[in-house]
Amino acid sequence: MNQTQYACNECDYLIYLDALEEGHVACCPRCHHHVVERKLNSINRTLAVCFAGLIIFFPAILQPLMSMRILGLDSSASLFTGMKAIWQNDLHFVAACIFFFCIFTPITKLISALIICLGVKAKKIHHAWFKQLFMYYHKADTWEMLEVFMIGILVSIFKLKDLADLSLNIGIICFAVLVLCVNALKITLDKAMIWDEIDNAKP
Amino acid sequence: MQNRNVNGLTAKDQGLALCMVCHQLANYKSGENNFCPRCESPIRMRFKDSLQRCWALTICSLIAFIPANAYPIMTFLTFGKGQGDTILSGIFALIKFEMYPIAAIVFIASFVVPLAKIIGLLVLLISLQSRKTFSKQKRTKMYRWIEFFGKWSMLDVFVVALLVSLVEFGTILEIVAGPGATAFGIMVILTIFAANSFDPRLLWDEESN
Questions:
Q1: Which helix or strand (DSSP H or E) is residue B84 part of?
Q2: Does one domain contain both A106 and A119?
Q3: Residues B36 and B80 in one domain
Q4: CA of B138 vs chain A CAs: smallest distance (Å)
Q5: Which residue of B has its CA nearest to A139?
Q6: Is the minimum CB–CB distance between A12 and chain B shorter than 8 Å?
Q7: pLDDT at residue A88 tops 90
Q8: In this structure, are A122 and A191 located in the same domain?
Q9: C-beta of residue B168 within 8 angstroms of C-beta of residue A75
Q10: Taking all residues of chain B, what is their mean pLDDT, rounded to a whole number?
Q11: Burial tier of B126 (Cβ tally within 10 Å: 0-12, 13-18, 19+)
Q12: pLDDT tens digits, residue range B70-123?
């Protein structure tokens, strides 16, 4: 049985919904928060996004995003070297933040979304670890900041472009694709549907 | 079907509590520890000590805002000499070089947003406690903006990380990160925790009482 009674998680208004068609959104009548969204072809789309994201992840993190040249000296930077440089500047807390927000959270989010989708496909969702994993996925949403880093790249390009010869590298394309993939997860993965599946799968 | 949804009832009125992890509605017995029947996480009617926690974290982030802007976030060294740049002086430098759009982005993301977030949370908290009524819809919208913009203030920290690793030419030209970055990171994390500990349903509870 699917959940029929919902409460808006922003104003606690009680809402009854029998069945929502794919692609439809239910809004709270009082505060207009999107209470439930049934997403189109959620599992397959999420799987595609996950695979793309995992393939592009390591090039995006490790490949140089841009390089600059001053007086014949070359230097390039990637997300990983940025983190390392901050660590060597003795700002361990900031380095840990960058690692956690831009490396750890996105990769674990991609992996857990992949496992969740494969689990739903293989009908192995009644295990306790599956619930734990899905709950982790919910919590990871707040702490994922790749898109902020993307704007950070743009700002640094503007800051440096008058200072020296600046060239963009392959890493920046990989990074842009990774940002798109991780954000597409939010659009494609239907959390409410997976909770319903978990409910139905109870042995 | 439509009529059922304009009854003006909240889950609280019906003795139901919403699980904030999986959004399952569950029966709530007061005076007991309640757990969600679906995901087994503990559930409450409203966030635990929402107002106290939010006050504490907001005041903390207001305090952290001062060192974040007073200490240099990075230092630009040419031949071993240079002056520290705070967030505001970095923005002024951008304006001096006539890079107005990028100056606007940095100014908004790293100065206006954190400050507006802290002030916005204070306004929400004070409006709840002084029972001054200005529209609940507006306040809910305000809360949504606060939540959405939270992580964008991290922008300057990431820019510093990139610049530090990119501009490394030994003694000729070097950018070194400063203690302001740590304070700034702490402030951003505190504001995110503060916004997360605020329970927007409290805004609507007055209506039912």
A1: strand B84-85
A2: yes
A3: no
A4: 9
A5: B21
A6: yes
A7: no
A8: yes
A9: yes
A10: 80
A11: exposed
A12: 888 888 777 777 777 888 888 888 788 777 887 887 788 788 888 888 998 898
Residue A20 at interface with chain B, using a CB cutoff of 8 Å: no
Q: How far apart are CA A196 and CA B146, in angstroms?
A: 30
Residue B72 tokens, joined: 């240099």
Q: Per DSSP, which regions of chain A are E strands?
A: 5-7, 14-16, 25-27, 34-37, 66-70, 73-77, 165-168
Residue A152 has its nearest CB partner, among B11, B159, B177, at B159
Contact B16 A160 (CB under 8 A): no
What is the rounded distance in angstroms from the CA atom of residue A53 to the CA atom of residue A56?
5
ipTM given for this complex: 0.82
Mutate to test the interface with A, among B12, B23, B25, B173 (most CBs of A within 10 A): B23
- Among B71, B164, B208, which would you mutate to test the A interface (most chain A Cβ atoms within 10 Å of its Cβ)? B164
- Record: contact A68-B166, CB cut-off 8 A: yes
Rounded distance between C-alpha atoms, residue B79 and residue B28, angstroms: 67
Contact between B153 and A54 under an 8 Å Cβ cutoff? The reply is: no
Q: Does A198 touch chain B (CB under 8 A)?
A: yes
- How many whole angstroms separate alpha carbon A181 and alpha carbon A170? 17
| Residues A175 and A60: beta-carbon distance below 8 Å | yes
Closest CA to A66 of A150, A2, A8, A134: A150
Cβ neighbours for B52, distance < 8 A, ≥ 6 positions apart:
none
The answer for A 115-144 residues in CB contact with B (under 8 A) is 131, 134-135, 138, 142
- Containing structural domain, residue B2: 1-45
Q: Supply the DSSP symbol for B143.
A: H
pTM of the model: 0.84
Closest residue to B161, CB basis, from A9, A86, A138: A86
- Kindly state whether residues B54 and B22 are assigned to the same domain: no
Residue A12, domain extent = 1-38
Report the number of distinct structural domains present in chain A.
Answer: 2
Amino acid B91 reads I
Same domain, A87 and A126: yes
Contact at 8 Å (CB) between A175 and A78?
no
Full 3-state SS string of A150-189: HHHHHHHHHHHCCCCEEEECHHHHHHHHHHHHHHHHHHHC
Q: Which helix (H) or strand (E) holds A49?
A: helix A42-62
Please identify which residue in the block is written with the tokens 């902020």: A148
